[in-house]
Amino acid sequence: MKPDKESARGLAQVEGYLLWNAELEQARRQARRFTDALPWLTTAQRDDVERVYVADRVELCRETLTRIADRAVALRGEYTARYDRLRARCVAQSVLTVGTVAGVCAAVAVISR
Question: What is the pTM of this model?
Fold first, then answer.
């Protein structure tokens, strides 16, 4: 793998790590805010509710990210197929145009003799 690609891959991994940790911290803050609205909970109950809340939020995020990644892969395949068809049509049209122009030029050359 080229150094540029390795660097880009490494940066993408670091970015993903930082984004995931930010999401986890956001889930923890929301869990604390949720349990703060329930003042009658004991400390143990509060910890359990926060743990379950964070786990549920993390699972939801994971499912969402998986769905988005799967869709991105599917779209990449669709767009690659469309691009390949478009490129083939453009090449065919170019060959046809060049052939037509060459034929017309040959016909004009033969007729003008």
Answer: 0.65
